[in-house]
Design a protein that fits this description.
The protein is of the alpha/beta class. The protein binds one RNA strand through helix 15, helix 18, helix 21, helix 25 and helix 26.
Amino acid sequence: MVADRSYRSYTTYRPYTAILCPFLMTLTDLQQKLRDRIRSAARETFGVEVQQLSVEAPPRAELGDLAFPVSFELAKLIKQATGEKQNPRAIAERLKSQLEDIDEVSRVEIAGAGYINVFFDRARLLNLFAGPTRSVPKQLDQPKQMVEHTSINPNKAAHIGHVRNAVLGDTFVRILKAAGDRVEVQNYIDNTGVQVADVVVGFLHLEQMDLNQIKALDASLNKDYPFDYYCWDLYTRVGLFYRDGNAGGDMNPEKVKLRNDVLHALEEGGNEIAELADYVATRNVECIIDTMERLGIRYDLLARESDILHLHFWERAFQLMKDKGVIRYETAGRHAGCWVMPFESHTGTDEHESDKIIVRSNRTVTYTGKDIAYQLWKLGKLGLDFNYKVFRDYPDGHVLWVTKTEPGTERPQFGGGVTVYNVIDSRQSYPQEIVARGVAAVVPEIGEDASVHFSYEMVALSPAACEELGIELSDEDRSRPYIEMSGRKGLGVKADDLINQLEAGALTEVEKRNPDLSENDKKATAHEVAVAALRYFLLKFTRNTVIAFDFKEALSFEGETGPYCQYAAVRTNSIFRKLGNETVAAADALIEQVVSDGALQARVAEVLSGDSGTEIWSLLMLSQQLEEVIAQCRNSAEPANLAKYTFALARSFSRFYHDHRIITEEDEVRRGVLIAVTKVIRTQLTNALAILGINVPEQM
RNA sequence: GCACUCGUAGCUCAGUUGGAUAGAGCGUCUGACUUCGAAUCAGAAGGUCGCAGGUUCGAGCCCUGCCGGGUGCACCA
């Protein structure tokens, strides 16, 4: 029986870990050591320099712990350098002895057409992995990574698509932090846009309410139907209102004028409508932040568009763009009177078809223009700054700030990131590309790579999900693979509704399994399970996969789900709860002696050999890949890798748990090994889950 | 029309600079609870990796063409 090897991981060299704590070695360090040895051996033996040196996990545990396909690469290099043709297998044979000298390596085999397969000294590595772990160093002087996510229009409740954005962004933030990065999290608040204006039109012209009446309404709403839910419904009513009650009809120009009037009032600021809109937007932001808090998602700064306008960020950016010749004024053609950003790379049939308008002929700025200004600020290249005030203080000391226009004494350092990740759905990839190019044109030294569009596909509704929601579909919609959610049409699954449903489902399960828990503990546990289910569900898909939302799948706690992973971690905890401190201490002491006691080392090696031992060993090796999986997720900006890895680890542990009795094991050495392995898995699995934003309850 | 993206088991999806016998979950079928908690584990069935060429010692992955989904290409935000 062989443990799960399906999760295969490859390493990337990370210079910033190699310099730390030389006495605490991780699997990543060990791999690096082997690579260095191969590089120097290739240099000395064949006189060639290997550029990229990949490490693989062999497909089956019997083939070894690490595989280097370097001989194939070397054969090419040698041929290039000398013209001499060498057999990859022969090359591998000559490198073999160099690796066998290393302490942690027990033997090396050449396999297949020339793979160099390395087998580790299992007892020795168990000792290493079970020893003290290295914590991620916090380097405050490190360059800052900026991540913007969530950025929901503050005119309605968040739906499941918004949650995908927030969970992806938040998990990526956790990945960056786990990799040792300094990170600042922003949530952009478009409080002067059309969507807020629409809800304001609703309050003013449908509800005939003034600010005081809205406040009174807000105070009268209960938590089952809060302010953002009210706005959700009002927003869809406004959509119909514009179209004179016909959802598919055209906009009535007179009613559109109402929207434009509100919009102008918002942009101007300092009037009653703007004050009313500010209340509505701020209340929606509060509701959305509360929703995200339920999922463990937080921010450092809320950057408001109204402050970008009033602090004249755009005017500064406009000046910079003119100075650098990034935009030009068109005097003729169909863009006459506009400032445009020319694009030569596109080969449109029209001469200037692909030019992007930044300032319209009526002298207003496009969204892209404003975005370039904001992006310049994020990168510390605008030369202007916001003012700030505290938006919310959390009990644990975290502080959420919000921008403001009026000067203030408090002025923390925000912005000025070396890289900016914008978590925005893939439909925005064209405008995002223009922002990146515009910024790079203004500040050539930072280049386009400083602006990263962290794109993801939308969450859509499966036809089945629509039926469950009681949404009537047209024949055209029914033939589609999925139906896009629409805030304007009120078509979507509200985030809080789904979380409530998940919590209720989890509570039923918890009550079944742990009837003796207090009501509060049951609820708290159900909450953690619900968060695990939702976050994992949204993370297990890669970013460019459209999620066709399915209730059955999202509400499941079995199979490849968050609760499954949680459950495995809960089991590790319950083992230690039952073991007792002395037994654990004895196991620790035993494993610690392995390096100095030859007889003991042989016994431990014996436990880790054979089919059963190899399964245990494979689990241990898998657990040590967390560090490189984090690095890989950081480089690829793909949190799904971590989700898949975590599941593979939980799965592998579940099998181990099933195959071995840990507490009742009578053989002292064997028990020591099983306990040490369980302890290592508990640490790694709990850490991996924490990065996914999933907590491990005591029981579940 | 142009650009981007996807097409892998009945369904939903992984599959990393090309590398060893293409993997999970769900569903179906067969087993395992006098339990370190079955939200679990074991086993079986299930594949022309959209199609056709090409490059390579080697292609699910790279190149070309085609077919079929999706998204984006406004003086909207």
